[in-house]
Amino acid sequence: MGKTEFDYYIFVDYSEDIIGYAIIEKSKMFELLPKIARFKHYRSAQNKKIYIKNIKQSIKRDELMAFFIRVKIKQLYKNMEIYLDILEFLKKHENCLVLISVDNRQYSAFKKMVRIIDGEKVVIKQESELIEGTPEYQTSLVLDNLINIERLKND
Asked: Residue 1: is its pLDDT beyond 50?
């Protein structure tokens, strides 16, 4: 991500008909990293069933949800609720630097929406711009896996 230090990181992702977001403070993100070192994108897992089972256990055992300020996962048709939550967070934290990683398909519309509220202290990146191995990339995998857990629960 370069040398910019952000106060908060927001990750927005979706899979099929599920959308979610996760907000984490910079200091908590670096505490979380050792606990999620083995996380990867669900689609790259060779044995998806075993991988998801192990990830669910890790999330519960290591109490990973406690690291996040807020996590919400909803059906895709409720995406406005997700976006409004993020905008509300940005409004309350307007003096902070925030990085938002958004799924590539929603990037341009999301960027326009956030620019209406605040264009100065918010950096928006496409998910594909996150560099593998960076703290941002690794943390984004938590949301990716949570969404896939939720999606598979409904199958």
From this structure: no
